[in-house]
Protein 1
Amino acid sequence: PFASAIACRVSSIAFASAIACRVCISCGVGDKIGVHFLFLPELAQESNPSDNARASTIFLNKSQTDVREKRRSNYLSNHHTSPGLSKKYSSCSTIFLDDSTVSLPNLKSTVKCVTLAIYYHIKNRDSNRSLDIFDEKIHPLTREKVPEDYYSVDPEHKLIYRFVRTLFSSAQLTAECAIVTLVYLERLLTYAEMDICPCNWKRIVLGAILLASKVWDDQAVWNVDYCQILKDITVEDMNEMERHFLELLQFNINVPASVYAKYYFDLRSLADDNNLNFPLEPLDNQRATKLEAISRLCEDRYKDLGKVTIRRSLSADNLVGVRTTHAVLS
């Protein structure tokens, strides 16, 4: 059982099996807990990328058409000219390193990649299937008058990024929360058999962020806190949207570590395909010392493991010492 579903920490973001999992859902004003039991069919999860690490992510598939067109146009434009270097490369005197890792991603770059994935979801959607709870025409997020074509024109990547960045900055959310947000978003689209489109993308993204922040962060952001960020939305509306979101997810908030890692590396691939490179910094003395310390720690652990293995195998014939390789960090 989960001790606290509103602000529970995902241990390596891997919960117990979702086949017979017990999860909690906030109700009322977000401070009461109700417990539900859920039995999910295994076959339905095998082809779902948000449940199965072997399935390909939806956003990466939707981006491939645009990526191929960009590569073709870049090839044609650079065919007769010598393109300049677009990346920093390490030389004999300087080494450039990317500090973003799967356990500690770069916040700004991760949010950019997640919003780009949402952009491709909207742009290359199959249809306009939606639900009333996410429709901004029925549940507007602002009292201000919006343009007439607001609900029919696909939003640009910059608009999506500004919306998500505002929420993450105001609520002080982490980069890991952004990745879990994308997992929940794709799970919603798959489970509910709906599409993310101009009229519902803000409320879908808001619901995914709301749930991901409660699952991931130790100090969860309450529903009323989001009402301070989005001035025109009510707590009752947030609570209702949260309940519907969890019901559409079939109360499956399980995010295995393998699924999280797959989404992280697919976001890295998406960034590389769209020239959204993660920031590279030159290696200085302080960072070199830190890397050396990490490498030495790993080497000592391997040596200790080798000694234990040899000690347990003294009775074996033709004993050969365990060979260890040096860890190379780049």
Note: The longest strand covers residues 20-27.
Protein 2
Amino acid sequence: MGSASAWAQCAGGAPVPGASAAQIVALAGQGQTRAPGVEPWSPAALAQQLGAGADMRTLALSSAALLLADRTQIRMSASAQVRLCESQPQRTLLELAAGRLWARTKKTPATLQLQTPAALAVVRGTDWDVEVDAAGRTTLTVLSGLVELSNAQGSVQLGPAEQGFVEPGRAPVKRVLVNPRERVQWVAAYPTDTTRWAEFQRPDIAPALADLRAALQAGQWNAAQAQLQQMAARGDASAVVPLVLADLDLRNGQMDAAQARLAAAWPRTQDPRIAARRAELLMALDRPAEARAWLDTTRTAAPAAPELLLADADWHRLEGRGDAALALYRQAADAAPAGTAQQAAALRGLGRALQERGDLHAARTTLARAV
């Protein structure tokens, strides 16, 4: 992160002394902050107030969420670094030196500017996702609203379903996406609870899994990862090992590594949860053809598994095949044990699909059953 901090200069920003630029409203794993002009980093804390000009970064296997003074919400992925050059109700200036963040700007008209090593983004009331790689290349995806992405070499205007890409020293280019709100799913695909798997819910949980659960619940991601790797090295055949390792890959921003891990685990475990989770990640990676082939193969092995029925329903909904999606969501809800999280997920999917078809009464009734 050294080169990233050297780059960030808050060009054009004038921090207001003593002003609170943001508050840390969520923190999973480890984050660090530092005040303007202070070289050592300090551990970040939940509810911490960050002053104008402060830096915030997330470490490996970690994430954070910030609420800015203008009510903009920001979620940072693992290994991201942002500088709060200026954040006031009337004007916000940020710099993203590395990593990925998602933001929702509520103020209209928005007065938010985001500087990266490659370009300046001027945001006008929007929901957007931006990533800066190790070489400073910037990818910005607009989900709603408008963004102008520019540098000395040129500029592009980005609207909903459009993405801008820019390398340092080159003009930005624009490309059109198919359904980006569904495709850009790194926030949604991010595991909210790494202990959600059934193995952690059993009253007779094995001691090793109890220790692992405690580490995960405490946010001790590195310790949990080391324990899981030891379990895998010992030949532990439990499906929960690759499932949680994939969750930790996602926490570290490595979605492709997560899906590859699950693909490797499927022949050994034949666990429908592994197959369904990989299908979800392939869809999030915008690889629908690969997800389709994977579902066709794995559903042959477990045709009635509610997890795979649900993943198949999601695939059909994303591809605009509403009738097939509705049928599969209903099959998944019927196949899942009553009152379980699996059944609730199937009912939520069915409710969303009904909403998209315009059947609002049936959608409301179905979503009420999912609660």
Note: DSSP finds 13 helices and 15 strands in the chain.
Protein 3
Amino acid sequence: PTDETDRTTHSHPTKHRGASALLSPISMPSALSYTSLSSMTTDTDCADASLTRRSSSGGLLSPEVAGAPAEHDGFYMLKKDSQRRTTLSRVLSQDQANICKVWLSSVRQDVADSVLNMGHLETLMCGLREYIANQNKDQLETAILTLKEDLEFDSVAINQLHLAIYLFQDAVNVVLRSHSIKPHWMFALDNLVRNS
């Protein structure tokens, strides 16, 4: 002797029951005052402090460390930029001969009878390295002026010098790839070279 509504409720418990049947009742404090609210926030703060951080996959993460630099922090970014400049400057110093060899080959591939030689590229590279390391334009401008004087301000030679400056980035990237540098660092170093 069960009626139709009983049968559908048992076979589909959520079909005819309201939301109040599924949720647990909320207990409200009988009287609210400023002191009861402040004690509630203190209890909540303590409960939050005891929680551990979890990743979206459910694994535990290390807790936030007070004072740890955030990646968007200006000082952190400045420090990273300085590290990348130092790394790139070191690579340019250690691999100068190899970079200049690749670089000269690239220049001669574009201009068969180039007037530029290894010495010209080494001079230019010293100026570029100083600019990358210290953001000092004076060294770079001095190197370019020295080369222009050495090339006797010949317009064809100066055009080849401009081409060499343009090809510098590719020559450095070839040598950087031979080192075990992480891809995101490669991108950052590539940006430094391009900006120089």
Note: Confidence is low (pLDDT under 50) at residues 38-55, 58-65.
